[in-house]
Amino acid sequence: MKQEKVLIMGAGGQIGVELTMALRALYGEANVIASDIREAHPLLAGKGPYVLLNAMDANATLELVKKEGITQIYLLAALLSATGEKDPKRAWDINMQSLLQVLDIAVQEKLTKVYWPSSIAVFGTTTPKQDTPQKTIVEPRTVYGISKYAGELWCQYYYQRWGLDVRSIRYPGLISWKSEPGGGTTDYAVEIYHEALKHSKYTSFLSADTYLPMMYMDDAIRGTIELMEAPAEKIKSRVAYNLSAMSFSPKEIAASIQQHIPSFEISYAPDFRQQIADGWPQSIDDSAARADWGWQHHFDLDKMTADMLHHLKG
Ligand SMILES: NC(=O)c1ccc[n+]([C@@H]2O[C@H](COP(=O)([O-])OP(=O)(O)OC[C@H]3O[C@@H](n4cnc5c(N)ncnc54)[C@H](O)[C@@H]3O)[C@@H](O)[C@H]2O)c1
């Protein structure tokens, strides 16, 4: 069997740091090259190959792929939902151009697989909000969501036209303690744990009863690797898979924290992110991922809260 050599682009972000560590455990440290436009995250610095690479630079990417004999790319570099709304054209350019370049390089260099994440942001106000199906009305309202849905269709196109094995997940909001969130609408669900431990209070930028689909990073990383390791014939959707674990509101996460920190207080000051959240599903139907390649989540809200607080306390 051919040894895989993996390139991760955008490895310094919330997902990239943990995915890099998990893939290195699987393929060996030397076989997973982490790259980003930023200097290495402290958890990656000095711990394996790390390259400064702009995902917008097709020539530099191609050169690296050839030089290192890369067989798989995980493209994580992107502008996220809240950041994207501040500069829509830039978000479109970064999110689309980096994807199309990677897809072309993957076809040209005959890579075995590409991973590119999508998001629940592909859904909009016209989508059913509860148990949002895999196949449903898709009319995203943010530039981020538009770029994700266009990207999903491009991935499917490259699969159908050139047989490129590109796989994708529509992540819900991701919660982690090792790396910081990068400008999404669900970032409150990470900040709240830090503030609960530091100040015993938190002001949420989403209102008390805003339900959103969420997932603990451990589940997201395991799910990503399971999808990528699944035999190709099990991958029946070549747009991104819905993936779900839990759904909660700011009021409910606060109650979960209060079980550990009874003095914790939450207040609410919704900002522009409220409107983004109001356009997204409240819960997700991921039965296709469960049936096709055996997805299962392990963390619910209370289990996640216990784990987050345990690790952040240090
Ligand atoms: N975190 C979530 O809740 C979530 C949810 C749904 C989808 N996603 C998707 O997962 C992927 C990774 O998200 P994340 O949360 O880790 O984001 P993040 O913002 O934390 O990390 C993105 C990384 O990409 C890097 N980057 C940005 N522009 C770059 C460029 N031109 N070249 C190279 N690197 C560049 C940034 O420096 C950063 O380290 C994105 O595609 C995002 O849309 C994330």
**CATH-defined architecture of the largest domain:** 3-Layer(aba) Sandwich
Order of helices and strands: EHEEHEHHEEHEEEHEEHEEHEHHH
Given this structure, which CATH class of the largest domain is correct? Alpha Beta
Gyration radius, in Å: 19 Å
- Ligands, ions, cofactors: nicotinamide-adenine-dinucleotide
Sketch the major β-sheet: 6 strands, parallel
- The count of β-strands is 14
How far is the N terminus from the C terminus? 41 Å
Percent helix, as a range, is 40-55%
Mean pLDDT: 97
In the CATH hierarchy, what is the superfamily of the largest domain? NAD(P)-binding Rossmann-like Domain
Q: Structural class from helices and strands?
A: alpha/beta
- Supply the number of helical segments: 11
Q: What proportion strand?
A: 5-15%
Indicate the overall shape.
globular
Number of domains: 2
Output the strand order for the largest sheet: 3-2-1-4-5-7
Low-confidence stretches: none
- CATH fold-level label of the largest domain: Rossmann fold
